[in-house]
Amino acid sequence: MHMLDHFWLTYLYQPLFNALIWIYLNIAERNMGWAVVWLTIFLRILLMPFTLISERDNIKQKEVEAQAVEAAKAFKNDSVAQKEEVRRVMQKNHVSPWAKVFSLAFQVLVFLLLYQVFIRGITGERIVKILYPFIDFPGKINLDFYGTNIGNTHDVFWAGLVAIYLFFSIYLKETFSKQRDQSRVTFLFLFPLFTFAILWFLPMVKALFILTTMIFSDIISLIRRVLFPEKKAAVPAKASAKK
């Protein structure tokens, strides 16, 4: 257990904390809120190769799903055969989600590390103990972000802003989706509400981190759609010949 704590502190917590302080001093003009925003952006840029692979895999997955639906039409009078055909096509053209899983896991790790930073508190004594020698001591940390202390919990505005952004983000994606059912409608409303409830209990900085990473992801997706639009599923030609 001691080795695990040492690994967490030395190789995960301490590097991220020092990076945050360096950004706070050199880029964010001594505003910890903007330091978190910039840290999130830099981490997402670092993960860009995995993000691009994930976007490519999403396109492939949709194409495979469209192929499966088209293949199942040949068995329109046999629901069991339809399911088997869909399963066969999906298994044959399986798309591995490893890049997306790695990217999400990394962001969850950063989420937990930032949570620990602000739960422990950013005070002079704590900073001195884990600050690298080449990083200047920042003095008293400015936690104000447009009138809100980013270390405070029970912040309705920022938790609500994330929930609203999430709602419209899901809504827009569902608008362009051909698959609509009751479960998707339920998800549209419940997931933003659940997110709001969780963020309301956590320090406001968590809402800032999540909002930044969602906006970054949506920008990348938008650029991908403009540069590499999704191909429409090809409809197989009817194999009918007139004699």
TrEMBL record:
Keywords of the record: Membrane, Transmembrane, Transmembrane helix
Q: What is its main location?
A: membrane
Superkingdom of the source species:
Bacteria
Would the keyword Transmembrane be found if you checked this record's keyword annotation?
A: yes
Segments traversing the membrane: 7-25, 31-53, 97-118, 156-173, 185-202, 208-228
- Which parts of the sequence belong to the Membrane insertase YidC/Oxa/ALB C-terminal domain? 32-220
Cellular component GO terms, alphabetically? membrane
Q: Where in the cell is it found?
A: Membrane
Topology in membrane:
Multi-pass membrane protein
Family note: Belongs to the OXA1/ALB3/YidC family.
Task: Report what the protein is called.
Answer: Membrane insertase YidC/Oxa/ALB C-terminal domain-containing protein
Question: What species was this sequence derived from?
Answer: Candidatus Magasanikbacteria bacterium RIFOXYD1_FULL_40_23
Instruction: Recite the lineage of the species.
Output: Bacteria, Candidatus Magasanikiibacteriota
